[in-house]
Specification:
Layout: H1 2-25, H2 39-45, E1 49-50, H3 52-60, E2 65-68, H4 72-77, E3 79-80, E4 84-85, H5 91-101, E5 108-111, H6 119-129, E6 135-138, H7 141-147, E7 152-153
Parallel strand pairs: 1-6, 2-4, 2-5, 5-6
Antiparallel strand pairs: 3-7
Length: 156
């Protein structure tokens, strides 16, 4: 019994040492939650979210470019009248052309589908980082737009 206990303790100690040794040779950087926002992220956050009422005013006065952050499939099924499709997940594919076509002083309002959709915020932040300082987003934009019976387009 005493010998079994000693062998168990030795196995545990060796296992812990091997674990530390293997962990020390790993090349992966541990994932750390980002807690501190950069200055650019903080400057983006300040006042970037618009209410649906503010977006409707910009639409009626034609003072902003509306950008749908959803997929082209969703965009074709229905979008804000006059909006362009800038799929957030394809940002790297279209941003080069976009930079050459749109003035950096243009007010851009991004939107996506519902309350759990963060594409509009992510797209607005990427556009802001690309130099478009007048970039905003509507949370739950497409659903709110439809509920207000505002003009829509269907491409399909």
């Amino acid at each position: 019994m005493k010998q079994t206990l000693v062998e168990t303790i030795i196995i545990i100690i060796v296992s812990v040492c091997v674990g530390f040794l293997v962990n020390g040779f790993q090349t992966k950087t541990p994932v750390r939650p980002q807690t501190d926002k950069t200055e650019q992220e903080e400057s983006f956050d300040a006042g970037r979210q618009l209410t649906i009422e503010e977006a409707v005013q910009d639409f009626k006065s034609q003072s902003a470019l509306f950008a749908d952050a959803r997929s082209s499939y969703d965009f074709d099924a229905g979008h804000i009248h006059g909006a362009i499709n800038l799929p957030e997940h394809e940002f790297d594919e279209w941003i080069g052309d976009f930079l050459g076509e749109i003035d950096f002083n243009t007010k851009i309002i991004t939107y996506c589908h519902g309350p759990d959709c963060f594409l509009a915020n992510d797209l607005a932040e990427k556009l802001f980082a690309a130099g478009f300082q007048h970039t905003h987003y509507i949370t739950d934009g497409w659903e709110k737009w439809q509920k207000r019976k505002m003009p829509v387009q269907i491409t399909k």
